[in-house]
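Fold it.
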Amino acid sequence: VFPSLAQAQASVANEVYQELGQPSVFLFCPTEYCSSLCSPSPSKSCYLLTLGKELLPGIGIIWTGPKVVSRELSATLLEEVEGVLQRRPVIWDNLYANDYDCRRVFLGPYTGRAPGLMPRLNGLLLNPNCELQANFIPIHTLGSWFQSELRSCGHPDCAGMETVTAPEDDQGTQEGSYSPQEALELALLDWVTEINRQALEPGR
């Protein structure tokens, strides 16, 4: 019935989206959901180009970055993806995911995400460690990163705004910008407080 996988997927997604009354949040995860899965590249992928053209504009598209688990996210890459998909992507961030390797637990701060990404995003989902307690620092520092992004934009909704940031100097991060180390220290202080609070609960 359909000449390509992308057209088939877009047709089904559009029909479901319309049947549900075009909800404000409706996410579509493409088969090519990161750069390493694209052939030959995101900007030249016939699959992604078709999705960008065929999917209704109210449908959000999930993207994980250069790889399934991306160590870094840059505004340049997201700008390329936005051009292909004809909408800003929703990042499904697998930085902390360990469902594929139970020996891997990431307890470090949210890092590797360039400042000024928010104008290039339509949302961000964090895929956490499977172990619940291991996610205190990831989620806490994600909150710090998000607050820093809001401050740099000057408004909670900075869609479409361009953000200019100075490069880091030899002294560390630019004043007022997100610092993974500072975010980690704040998270650790709050985590210790939470652990002590739980330890005092009856039966613990």
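Helices lie at 5-19, 46-54, 75-85, 136-153, 180-199.
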